[in-house]
Amino acid sequence: MSGILFLAHRLPYPPDRGDRIRSCNILRALADLGPVHVGCFAESRADLRHEAWLREVAASHCMPLRSKPLPLAGVEALLRGEAISLAAFRHRGLMRWVRETLAREAVDTIYVFSGQMGQYVPADWQGRLVVDLVDVDSAKFEAYAATARPPMAQIHAREGRLLRSEEARLAARADHTLLVSEAEAALCRARVGAAGRDIRALAMGIDAARFDPAQVAPHPELASAPGPHILFTGQMDYPPNVAAARRVIERLLPAIRQHIPTAQFHVVGRCPGARLRGADGQGGVRVWGEVPDVRPFLAAADLVIAPMEIARGVQNKVLEAMAMERAVLLTPDAATGIGAMDGQDFAVESSDGALVARALALLAAPARAAAMGQAARRFVVERMSWPAALAALPALLGRDGQQPGRRDAA
Description:
alpha/beta; about 45% helix; 13 strands
């Protein structure tokens, strides 16, 4: 049986953040279609402890530790006239492993997860190529440039321009270019123009069995403390998440507490910076940092909020909260690609004033909030399960109707 080469910018495990959740589930699905050879990066020595998982799912693998300092990547990028994102993820050892694997193994498909890894596809590759960009990263950097100050505005603008060229190059070469939602796919088509061969959505999914409120007890500290409790979750060194949390702390929560003085805002997610940590304990704010399991916090929340001002693709934090039957208040950017109904499955507002008013209305009507949470769970269970999201994957790889592969046969 022909194999698949899977290239990812970070180890697809554990599935504890949006891109890892997606890459982990896709890798597992690929392993059902044939032997998979995985090239990816460990971001820390802690990732190396999960190499046993990689051995179980992959026929072979290469996982170097990504240790190139960002300033060095910046210098390389300037000298080569390329995006910093490409220089940061270039590794000679991984390049060599890719060449050797393709020479040694009967691989007919390369699956690239994230645009940074497209540089590893050999120029003479003649097999099937699937590029999963996930989001249009170039548009994200352009949005950063629009709000940043010099010199970061110029750095972000350069990164956006060069990544746009790389996205166009990959879309022109790939048999299929995948994005996390139809909205992202449409944006990519508009940006690369006629160069793109087949640009389509491969949706994000949710493990609704794991994120089931019937299986999770609320966090005891939140459950016993005065509320209501408003929750934000996410990777807290990611600039759009930091900006969203600061928006709540500095602008939304003070207005809410004018009406509900006991309201509490909880920030849950790894790597909060000094400014966020400094807000812990001030004015109803609690910054938890990394936690073993986000589900008890979701189970205890009266309202989950995602006031993103910059967001690309589908926000996994929103899907998790919806699966846990929480009322979710979010901005249009954070709602992109989900397809749920405002007022039924979640609540969508843009301005600070509208977000505050909608939050107060939901917090004042627990029955209405509970009904919204129940509708949210029904929506994601019926429309956004992983089997439904990845149903098209075998056909994209030319393996529809194929017998189970290495992992199921083991």
